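If I may wish for something, please walk me through the protein I am sending here so I can picture the backbone:
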Amino acid sequence: MSSSSNSSTPAKKAAGAFDVRNVIAALIGFYGVVLVLMGLFANSPDEQAKTGDVNANLWAGLAMIVFATAFALWSRLRPIVVEAPPDRQDPEDDGSGTTAGPSLHKG
């Protein structure tokens, strides 16, 4: 009988929520939504006069939402794939190459 999984090949997994592009998309998207709301509901003639009769909050917010959407799509369409660490034989081994705790050798 043959097994469909090969034990010598490490498993690969997408970075998912830990991908920095998702964090950037979420932050930029949140600030974009805030700016769009400010542009729609808190735009006074005085503020619009400061920007040369342009609703700067609205346009900057829309641009940020487009940018955040592009980052989110990039993260979805081209995920970062990381290799899962191999199963460790020793539960005390943290993979750093050093031993935990005091040394038993007297020097």
User: Anything to note?
Assistant: The radius of gyration is 25 Å. The chain is about 45% helix and 5% strand. Strands lie at 12-14, 81-83.
